[in-house]
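dumping these here so i dont lose them again. two proteins, back to back, each one seq then structure tokens. dont judge the mess
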Amino acid sequence: MMKTAARPSFFVPAVLVIAFLYRLAIPYFYPAALRADEIFQALEPAHRLLTGHGVTTWEWQVGIRNWAFPDLIAGIWSVTDVLGLGHSPLWIQGLICALSLGVVVAFMGLGRIAAGRFGLVACALMGALWPDLVLGASRTTTEVLGGNLLALAWMTWWCKRTPGRVVFMALGFALPVLGYGLVDLRTSGMLFRSVLRNVHANIGQNIAATYGTAPFYFYIVDLMLRWQVGFLVVAAFFVYGCRQFPMPSMVAVTVILSHSLIGHKEPSFIYGAIPLVMVVATVAFSRWVNQDPLPWPGRRMMLGAVMIPLLGFVQVQSLTHMRTSNALIHLQQIAAGQADICGLALPIRGEWSHTGGYSYFSRHDVPLYFANDVASLAALDGRYNYLVTYGKTWSAPPEDTAITCRREFCLFRIRPQCSMPPDYAQFAQAVNRYEARTHAAHD
């Protein structure tokens, strides 16, 4: 009896430790943004609040973004600065990785309640290791944070539907929403003004469409391409579990269908549906296995036969994407570590959104300079001594030997020092002008 009781007590903390370390390892080894909004709608405005340096994108200029999350990030960074730890994005990502473990706990609780020991183990593996949940855990976008909150609230309600939990869910939703509105009141003088302006800009004026539109079936095709064979397995057991667990299934389907009706689409927009899809599919799979009169060792073999190849295959697909998307931030971090750097030029045209902005300078800011052609780069002469560009494919490549290259980008040391004073505002101003010209061309 003591041995049986000890297993869950050891198993659950072990799963949580593994889940946290795996989640934190992604931003530590692959510092990259899956969407530019992770940096320029969250980290960068917070960095500007803290240091005075950072890109202010058009969304902030016209007031369609809320300052609640950047304020929180800036507050955390101010504490880490006082402690001598700098203001690295990793501190923020580590905190939200820790908060995301609530979803893993909910996975295990549901698995245990609905399918016993096998369900506990299966849901622990899926909640801790499924790539979408792992990659999403460190994303600094409000849709991912809100998606985790949505999934956690519904899974908590699913575990035990009591009046107390309904009140808990209502408060859990109401308090962040109220805080969101109060921040708007403080910064713009009106409750939820950023929400109203956002709806007017992206739906009324259709500004979001200038960033591209996709067909109705985009999200399904995107999941098929990313999960490949995993999509068939998950979809089959999700459909199988819909009748058993209609409420979370309906919420997941509603999230996906409602966003499918909007022209501009991003994979992160439906993130809130993913944990619900995965937990319904995993619990349904566990119940299906439990119907078989196999002893526990046989069930463990079946679990391994399905979960290990499935998780392994999708992990490889996701990590390959991460490795190929962090080139510019990686080179920027190497440049920031050079003792003699006094300015970093980025003649990379439309790739500016894949940089880390000023947010990835965690100790001291290095002036950034954006150039989209040879003439604009020449106008910056003397303000920088390092340059990141398209390697030898650049129309006027530097003569210096590259310090290092990543993908098609290379970091060069141009001269030993700068001859002009730093201009911390140039990067933001040049990016805003470039974006204004780009969107004007699409109008």
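---- next one ----
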Amino acid sequence: MTKYLISFPSEAMVLTDEEFPIVSAESHAARMATLTYKHSAWIVRD
């Protein structure tokens, strides 16, 4: 199986209090989509 790493610099992940719940919900939805299509995703924090 092909694996991909999607990475962002730490500075790109700075969120305001208003953005945090939106980004959280969208990232959860993206992760659930990988399960729906029987793919996998690695979540890595630096």
